[in-house]
Amino acid sequence: MHSDHVGSLGSFVGYCYWKSKITSNIYFYEKEKVGKFLELTGAIEGESFILHNTNNKRIDSLELTLSSYLTEHAKTVNTYSFILKFDKENDIFYSGDTCKTNIDVIPFLKDGNIIYHDTCLNDCEGNVHTSLRVLSETVPKEYRKQVYCIHIDGENFAQEAEKQGFNVAQVI
């Protein structure tokens, strides 16, 4: 759990509970770790948050099934990618922090699905993120409009990614 991904989760759970009277549902593969983290922020399991596993987890209210998969990132922390399998719409693959793609990309995209993938310009040995070069080698040109780059680095990342046919996730 890197703080750039979960650092404000405790604040969010607290705000939902104390200000809006909402108990947050937290979906995470390593339930014990995220539970301890949230308890350190003052959140109380079963009261301000409920933990759920992500192993083929059905969420009826959203009409989807959520699955997580261990992926490769840094040696000191586990990271996960997710597949959101919708009942009626196209599915979504979210890579999480990773230096590799851990799904079979071409059949997934051929079915009309969408990918949000960790991508950066930095292209060096031992990189913990997927470089734009590696993503370009993985995704054929005809499917790149179905791929949204995230974890953007560098001043001209968006221009480079779009030049190669990818989308860049927009901050809203």
What is the strand and helix layout of this fold?
Layout: H1 3-6, H2 9-20, E1 24-27, H3 31-40, E2 49-52, E3 57-59, E4 64-71, E5 79-86, E6 92-94, H4 105-110, E7 114-118, H5 132-138, E8 147-150, H6 157-163, E9 167-168
Parallel strand pairs: 1-2, 6-7, 7-8, 8-9
Antiparallel strand pairs: 3-4, 4-5, 5-6
Descriptive report:
The structure is a single chain. With 172 residues, the chain is of the alpha/beta class. It has 2 domains: 1-53, no CATH class; 54-172, Ribonuclease Z/Hydroxyacylglutathione hydrolase-like (Metallo-beta-lactamase, Chain A, 4-Layer Sandwich). The two termini are 24 Å apart. The longest helix has 12 residues, at 9-20. The protein is built from 6 helices and 9 strands. The mean pLDDT is 87. Helices cover 27% and strands 24% of the residues.
